[in-house]
Amino acid sequence: MPDLLIELRSEEIPARMQRKAAGDLKKLVTDALVEAGLTYEGAREYWTPRRLTLDIRGLTARSADVREEKKGPRTDANEKAIEGFLRSAGLASVSEAQVQSDPKKGDFYVAVVVRPGRAAEEIVAEVMPGIIRNFPWGKPMRWGAASAEPGSLRWVRPLQSIVCTFGSEHDETVVIPFEIDGIVASNVTYGHRFHAPQAITVRRFDDYAASLEKAKVVLDAERRKQIIAQDAANLTFANGLDLVEDEGLLEEVSGLVEYPQVLMGTFEEDYLAIPGEIIRLTIKTNQKCFVTRRQGSEDLSNHFILVSNIEAKDGGKEIVHGNGKVVRARLSDAKHFWTRDQGDLPDLDTLKPSAEKFGLDLKKPLDQRMAKLDALNVTFHAKLGTQGERVARIRALAEKLAPIVGADASLVERAVVLAKADLRTEAVGEFPELQGVMGRKYAGLQGEPASVAIAIEDHYKPQGPSDRVPDDKVAITVALADKLDTLSGFWTIGEKPTGSKDPYALRRAALSIVRIALERKVRLPLFDLLKSQKENIQESIRATQAREKAGFLGLIVEIHGVVGDGLDCERDLLSFFHDRLKVYLRDQGARHDIIDAVLTPDADDLLMVARRAEALTAFITSEDGKNLLAGTKRATQLLAAEEKKGTVVADGVSEALLKLDAEKALFAAITQATKAAAEAVATEDFRSAMQALSTLRGPVDTFFEDVLVNDEDAAIRANRLALLKAIREATGTVADFSKIAG
Predict the structure, then answer these.
(1) What is the pLDDT of residues 164-217, one digit of tens each?
(2) How far apart are the first and last CA of the chain?
(3) pLDDT of residue 148
(4) What is the DSSP annotation of 245-263?
(5) What element of type H or E holds 292?
(6) What ranges do the domains of the chain cover?
């Protein structure tokens, strides 16, 4: 079967777009071919900084014929109905239609429409121009004289050539010649821009890839990554160093070169006095280079790895020299930032009010930066006030959280007021990714306690499902306060995530709180904390409104319009936490029905929910668990059916109305099991609580064998249903067993 080769070569494709663009090309082309009636055995996409390539193997040479029967009106229908049918079916007269009989509906016309298959070349030539013209680039451009014309081609960078060949492995291939804005598809491509710019004639993928290889183009991006990683590791090892691996940078660099050449540069050792994080980001961000460390050490070396796209005649000396000049200039800037951040600000007198507000020591550089952050009224969010006001809110919440977590209150207080201070440092101004990291370093330099320094960095964590959770109690407290304030704030002003949109990463913040609570075993009274923080936020907004009347006029009215005067905000946010908890527990292997069984709408202690789910998961498959489930379900299902019919259920069980031994025995068993379960739940021993409740299985079975629940006597019937209600209430202290499958 024939193969199809497509290459779209342009002046440049930004590295961050290449992988997605190649995937888009594959999907768009294969979907279009399949929709047109073709099939294929396999397809693979490739990309370099200058080209997108698609190799489709085993494509059918033509689409199959399609036979379609189109049912028409009855043969005795009026003339207009028949004429309309003929037009829609493409028939010239009734004689071209067939007549079919239906025992019930009589005779009717049927048009048999046969659409012959089409050659694959014709289909490809038809679909490709539209795919290229409508390609989903984020920010396409126009170029040349044609760009002034309506509907001219838009591409990420100027499109220079198109290859489109088709043919089987042993036969000669053909070019499928379609044209877009003067660019005609052919079998000609070009190699490396500098080493092999000559035209290359290709037939099918295998000789295309081999020809490009000879022309200094490594087509496969994964192979380019392997070459870079291996050559960099070998070069560093040969020099007594280790490469500091960076998968994101490796992906980016592999998208900048078609013919990777790995070289090593150096900078002065004096720059190693700068924190390693700054060195790494400076070299990575500005020069797309890797840093190295001394073998067996965590300390960085003064050597860096760069990747060139050219095999230089001088062995790369000039390339290394040029990159080294830029790296040294950038590190000089970074050293300047690092030094200035440890010095005094020039306007300390203006910072005294802010220092008093937060208990800051203006003799310390980091304290000065926090005072400056507050004094400048740096906005956190237009509706939620300044960064200073936010720190004040976090401080109030952290004060409540400290005893819950078991953290030192004075250390929490200090960590909170310094947590955002590094936002005013020059290092973080240049590299925002270092917020928290630089705060920790500067805190250490000015002699802050270790827990305070750690909390400044770790209060941002975890920042994703694979990120670590803080383990220092001060850091845990500040992290919880920071994230709870964020969530409560945006809920208060009505800016919640919608669909796939979550511009403030609120889902991540909620999941982070879930992870901290569960992985660090923190009992959070979420509902009370959220209610308290909403009040703090509203007070903060009122203060801002008073300070900037024009900017915040009428905002409180808007807030009440969003959340109302009751507890809608807290309930809605609690439900949001429940959704994140479900995601987390399912990822940990918990069954969805077990999660639903233990998660009630007002459950705000996430750790307890998780413990109940864990205990129930372990218990439900045991023999006692099966007994518990069977006994409970039989009772609660019958009760629910009667309640649905409106049958009267007594408020409580009357022993005087218990006539039969089976119902007396059940009542005694319920009383005993309820007491034992309640005692176990009080000590959070949910497995023992379930074990106590599982003893009801025998009495329940005997009850249903010997007792008619729907007795003719209404009082007895209501009392027996109250017995079943007592079972539901007893088991409800552990879980809602009606939601468990099986």
Answers:
(1) 999 988 888 999 999 999 999 999 999 999 999 999 999 999 999 999 999 999
(2) 51
(3) 78
(4) --HHHHHHHHTT-SS-EEE
(5) strand 290-294
(6) 3-61+119-214, 66-90+106-115, 221-341, 348-588, 607-739
